[in-house]
Every structure is written in C-alpha cells, then in structure tokens.
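Reading a protein record of the kind used here takes only a little practice. The record below shows the convention in full:
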Amino acid sequence: MVKPQCFSKGASLPLLFCLPLLTGCPGTGSGDYLRPDETAYVSKKGEKICFTIPEAEDYQPVYIAINPRGRPPGEQTFTQYPPLRVDNGWLCIPPSFYPFPDSSSVPFIVETILHSSATNKPARTFVAGVGLSNGRVYAVPLTNKEITR
C-alpha cells in the first residue's frame, strides 16, 4: 500500500513560502486594505452648506462630488482640487461653488476626499446625505451603496 505524500514535510515547505504571497504579510506595513468612509454632519451657515470634519488637523479637500441621489456613476460630476478649505473643522460650500436649491425632493450625496500635507497620513473620505426643504438643510441617512462601512 502506498501512503499519500501530499502533507509530508517536503510538500508543505513550498506552501509556507507561497502563503504570504497569496495572503500578504500583516507585519510589513499598511498593505492594501479598505478604509471605511467617515460620515460628515451637515448644517447651514449663512448661505453656505457646511460639513463637520472631526480632527481636521491639516487635511484639505483634493476631490469633491456633489450629486443627486441615484444619479448613475457615469453621469456623476466631481471636481479635483476644489477651491474649498477646511477651516476650524468645517468644510463649507458657498453658492458660488455649488448652487444648492432651496428645496429638493431628491437628496444630494456629497463625497469629499481629504489629503494631509504630511506624507505619512492616509487620505480620508467623508460622505454626507443632504436634504433641502424651504431653505433648511438636514442630514439624510446613507445607504450601503453610498458609503463604505
């Protein structure tokens, strides 16, 4: 009778060397992992629609997308390096950048990516649902399609 050799010491040695290639090494750095989006809370300051940015430090926007909920990905609009700044933990959008209507039956989804001037800090993505009614602004819950949790 012949004993199968598939789990002998000689056969498992190549598996030990290939396993880190297939799964990645957790101790060698940040790796390729998915960071969850952060939720930004919305409010109105004068004519501006503003979003909270907790622990803003030196983070500034490098990308912003403002689209009505349900707009297909191929039709969504975005701006790279928008002329907006995070100031005292707030990212505010003036009407000159994006003229939100006073009322809308469809909420808007605002997504922004912030980068730090420090090279060792990861990018941060914030997503907020914005509802508008009679000049008032309110937060709209996000669906799993709109935010990475």
User: Anything to note?
Assistant: Helices lie at 9-23. The chain has one domain: 34-139.
